[in-house]
Design goal:
Helix content: under 10%
Number of strands: 11
Structural class: mainly beta
Largest sheet: 7 strands, mixed
Shape: globular
Distance between the termini: 40 Å
């Protein structure tokens, strides 16, 4: 069973940066399809970054050029570097790990972008 623990959220001013971490245990991250999602209360969870087919990455237009997903296989950790943050980026950010037979989520970390 894969377990995911996010960290790195907090309060940041518009234009600032944060780096989120997702520490995985129970399976090596290079055997999983890893991604980051976010959710605002009352809205659907949305994808913000994911690895596709190994090392290529996918981002929605709303974060493209500002967010970067990366991974450290030695630490079994996935990161989300978020730059040029906007108030509309405020949400709970969740780490996700998938295989054909499993879909695991962390508990989330809150990111608040406000002056």
């Amino acid at each position: 069973q894969v377990q995911l623990v996010e960290s790195g959220g907090g309060l940041v001013q518009p234009g600032g940066s944060l780096r989120l971490s997702c520490a995985a245990s129970g399976s090596a991250i290079d055997s999983l399809s890893m991604g980051w999602y976010r959710q605002v209360p009352g809205e659907q969870r949305e994808l913000v970054a994911t690895f596709s087919g190994g090392i290529s990455t996918i981002y929605p237009d709303s974060v493209k050029g500002r967010f970067t997903i990366s991974r450290d296989l030695a630490k079994n950790t996935v990161y989300l570097q978020m730059n040029s943050l906007k108030p509309e980026d405020t949400a709970v950010y969740y780490c996700n790990a998938k295989t054909w037979v499993m879909d695991a989520w962390g508990k989330g970390t809150l990111v608040t972008v406000s002056s």
